[in-house]
Design brief:
- With 243 residues, the chain is α+β, with helices and mostly antiparallel strands.
- It has one domain: Alpha-Beta Plaits.
- Helix content is 28%, strand content 36%.
- The protein has seven helices and nine strands.
- It has an eight-stranded antiparallel β-barrel with strand order 1-3-2-6-7-5-8-4.
- A hairpin with a 5-residue loop joins strand 6 and strand 7.
- The longest helix has 16 residues, at 139-154.
- It is globular.
- The two termini are 33 Å apart.
- Residues 238-243 have low confidence and may be disordered.
């Protein structure tokens, strides 16, 4: 797959009374989302606090859609689409993050949704997306290895926002993290001892049946970035709208 024209991350914060409606949308909307004009790849995802990877980490008041588009023009029609309008009806706040792929390694559902981007400049905020499908027999060792990494991430310099994402309550999880600039992300990913130790263990432990890591330039944030966990006092340098 060629590098897409745009990737968008849509995040909705809903009231607890709307959780049943959100669960219904999660069942009914995936195929509708994938059939929107200009969509190459799309996933509706639940979220978690990012402190763990089990059902207890779930945040039922925040939901996301990751959409890979042929072009920015196609992406512009999302809010007016049946899927976009449906989520807007139950959301009390929302944000759309516009992303430009910088690097991508691995597969998601047997595909390379972001193509093979060749890097490129990124001088402002960057977003890192990790996604993995755990091998059931390796899940316990993975969960035991995660707490030190999560604690280190929470205190990492330059971290603007982070939360967990998942296609299912167990075994199909990932993380989204937003960093002030590429240097902060690189410093954590490759130099922080806890995270570097987890990277070294991955080939031998064989935790994942499938994995993907992608890095994006954050070209714009439209809406309320606090739904991402992005502190209001942090200046991303790209946000507009009511962010």
């Amino acid at each position: 797959m060629t590098v897409p024209g745009l990737v968008t991350l849509h995040v909705w914060r809903i009231p607890r009374a709307a959780v049943p409606g959100a669960l219904g949308r999660m069942a009914a909307h995936p195929w509708r989302l994938r059939r929107l004009p200009g969509v190459r790849f799309a996933k509706l995802l639940g979220t978690g606090t990012g402190t763990g990877f089990g059902p207890g980490d779930a945040d039922l008041t925040r939901w996301t859609a990751l959409v890979v588009w042929d072009s920015p023009e196609a992406a512009a029609g999302f809010d007016a689409s049946p899927v976009g309008r449906s989520w807007a009806r139950i959301a009390r706040s929302s944000a759309r993050v516009e992303l430009r792929p910088l690097t991508s390694r691995g597969e998601w559902s047997g595909r390379r949704p972001f193509g093979e981007p060749s890097g490129g400049p990124a001088t402002g905020p960057v977003l890192a997306l990790t996604r993995a499908r755990l091998r059931a027999r390796r899940a316990v060792t993975f969960w035991r290895a995660i707490p030190p990494v999560v604690a280190a991430l929470h205190a990492a310099p330059g971290l603007l926002a982070r939360f967990g994402v998942g296609e299912a309550p167990l075994g199909w999880q990932g993380t989204v993290s937003v960093w002030r600039d590429p240097a902060d992300l690189v410093a954590f990913a490759y130099r922080h001892p806890e995270h570097h130790a987890a990277i070294r263990r991955t080939p031998t432990e064989r935790w994942y049946a499938e994995e993907l890591f992608a890095r994006f330039a954050v070209d714009d944030v439209v809406g309320d970035r606090t739904v991402l966990g992005w502190a209001a006092e942090d200046d991303p340098g790209t946000a507009r709208g009511n962010a």
